[in-house]
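Q: Here's a chain of 179 amino acids. Please give me its 3D structure as tokens.
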Amino acid sequence: MTRRIHGMIAEFEKPEALKRAVVEAKRAGFTSLDAYSPFPLSEVADELGVRTTAIPWIAFVSALAGGCIQYGAQYWMNAVDYPLNVGGRPLDSWPAFIPASLVVAILWAGAATLISLLMILRLPRLHHPVFEVHGFNRASEDRFFLCILSDDPIFQEEAARDFLKTCSPLAVREVPACD
């Protein structure tokens, strides 16, 4: 029986070291990488090709849909379904419909953002293989980690370990696969 692993992970003390390691890994041809740090590193995210451009569009489209549905519902109820002329006002009194439409648009945008973010990030995820790595708990405190995933086309366990050792990490460890 062959032993399965999730990848190889290297621990770094400084964010600059993590960024250098990511650049070197990309230059070496690795494409399936993951980085962990206690705070956002936009340079590392850019180097890894992380794109968050879908979230604003999802929020915009859902806000537009929610606002239009709310406005349409108010129009239908007041001008078509049950027209009630009070004081000679027009049945389609759009200034009165705008505040409720804006509130509903904001609510739809917030809900769609939350749901799509959870789906994109595949959360909630109660367990991840990197949680088994000794010392990984410091990723939320003061350490930086780079993981070369085993699904990378050029991944070979010993070659990945040797490559990560050339990046001057504090430690290089194996990430066990989840069964």
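Q: Can you summarize the key feature?
A: Residues 54-120 form one domain.
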